[in-house]
């Protein structure tokens, strides 16, 4: 579905038009909302879970925006009320090995494309962001979250009987510090907005994250020279990305070996049943 949020009468932008055409097929849309500022909107009901195709599409859109020199700020948001992203699509974990490899490779690529974006990126979270949903937010440069206490954010992988991949755990450590990350990871804590703000997992709470993110982009971030923003990002992220590329193949093998263990598969099936039971109780 195309979101025609091109509310600012900017010059014709062929790249964005092309993205909109691609996006009409699947679950993300791209629109320029202000000169230099693009919304990337996730809309894969019911919960924006990251399936293979969703990861690939989001990556593809980000790669096209990266090449578009007219865009220097990306606002990542969801149009599903109460949800930013539910993280990886758990049903993908029960697929055959070839598909698992393709899936994890696409997820790795999404991390590279978002964490490694040269543009400034802002996560506008109007709802929950567990696990890989939190990864999307952690990969952005700035996080604005709803103040609605129903929303939760964090790395809850341990509650599924799995662990976050090392590079995601590292993102958490880089953001909230080692000790808080360590406790969060083994407890699988999902934080309410005020708690997330208190530990530095998000940067701001606002009742309207989209409005606030656009205000920040235009009134604050665009006033900082673009090349300086990009160079500052390189300072803090280049080392992590280099390490990630070196470890990428090992990470893929590690994931497949881990996720296909009988004990892990049993845990995951149990977790999916819990989700279904919770829904039936509603
Ligand atoms: C030693 C080191 C080893 C390292 C090895 C590395 C291994 C790493 C492996 C994996 C990493 C994983 C990262 C992840 O992202 S795992 C995913 C974690 N996500 C979650 O736990 C979120 C679960 N979902 C929820 O909590 C809720 O759904 C919520 C997002 C809060 C929304 O709640 P609500 O609005 O009430 O919606 P429902 O719960 O009713 O759900 C609606 C339907 O959506 C389905 N659903 C929800 N989440 C997922 C998901 N992540 N994947 C697939 N499907 C999901 C849910 O079952 C409902 O489906 P249906 O309508 O068919 O019943």
TrEMBL record:
PROSITE patterns: ENOYL_COA_HYDRATASE. The keyword Isomerase applies. The keyword Acetylation applies. Its main location: mitochondrion. Pathway: Lipid metabolism; fatty acid beta-oxidation. It catalyses: (3Z)-decenoyl-CoA = (2E)-decenoyl-CoA; (3Z)-octenoyl-CoA = (2E)-octenoyl-CoA; (3Z)-dodecenoyl-CoA = (2E)-dodecenoyl-CoA; (2E)-tetradecenoyl-CoA = (3Z)-tetradecenoyl-CoA. One of its GO terms (cellular component) is mitochondrial matrix. GO terms for molecular function: delta(3)-delta(2)-enoyl-CoA isomerase activity. Pfam families: ECH_1. Keywords: Acetylation, Fatty acid metabolism, Isomerase, Lipid metabolism, Mitochondrion, Transit peptide. It comes from the Eukaryota. One of its GO terms (biological process) is fatty acid beta-oxidation. Signal peptide: none annotated. InterPro entries: ClpP/crotonase-like_dom_sf, Enoyl-CoA_hyd/isom_CS, Enoyl-CoA_hydra/iso. It is found in: Mitochondrion matrix. Homotrimer. Belongs to the enoyl-CoA hydratase/isomerase family. Key enzyme of fatty acid beta-oxidation. Able to isomerize both 3-cis (3Z) and 3-trans (3E) double bonds into the 2-trans (2E) form in a range of enoyl-CoA species, with a preference for (3Z)-enoyl-CoAs over (3E)-enoyl-CoAs. The catalytic efficiency of this enzyme is not affected by the fatty acyl chain length. This is Enoyl-CoA delta isomerase 1, mitochondrial. It comes from Fistulifera solaris. The lineage of its organism: Eukaryota, Sar, Stramenopiles, Ochrophyta, Bacillariophyta.
């Amino acid at each position: 579905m195309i979101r025609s949020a091109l509310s600012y009468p900017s010059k014709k932008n062929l790249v964005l038009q092309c993205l909109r055409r691609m996006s009409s097929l699947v679950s993300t849309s791209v629109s320029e909302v202000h000169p230099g500022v693009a919304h990337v909107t996730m809309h894969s009901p019911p919960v924006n879970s990251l399936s293979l195709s969703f990861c690939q599409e989001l990556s593809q859109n980000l790669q096209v925006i990266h090449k578009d020199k007219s865009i220097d700020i990306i606002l990542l948001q969801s149009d599903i009320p109460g949800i930013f992203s539910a993280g990886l699509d758990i049903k993908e974990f029960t697929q055959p090995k070839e598909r698992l490899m393709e899936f994890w490779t696409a997820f790795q690529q999404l991390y590279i494309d978002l964490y490694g974006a040269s543009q400034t990126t802002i996560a506008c979270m109007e709802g929950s962001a567990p696990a890989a949903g939190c990864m999307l937010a952690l990969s952005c440069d700035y996080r604005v979250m709803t103040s609605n206490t129903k929303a939760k954010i964090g790395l809850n992988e341990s509650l599924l009987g799995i662990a976050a991949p090392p590079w995601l755990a590292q993102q958490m450590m880089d953001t909230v510090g080692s000790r808080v990350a360590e406790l969060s990871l083994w407890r699988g804590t999902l934080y309410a907005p005020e708690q997330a703000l208190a530990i530095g997992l998000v940067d701001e709470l606002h009742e309207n994250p989209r409005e606030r993110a656009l205000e920040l982009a235009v009134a604050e971030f665009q006033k900082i020279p673009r090349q300086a923003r990009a160079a500052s990002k390189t300072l803090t992220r280049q080392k992590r990305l280099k390490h990630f590329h070196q470890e990428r193949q090992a990470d893929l093998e590690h994931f497949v070996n881990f996720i296909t263990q009988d004990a892990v598969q049993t845990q995951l099936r149990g977790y999916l049943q819990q989700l279904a039971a919770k829904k039936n109780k509603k």
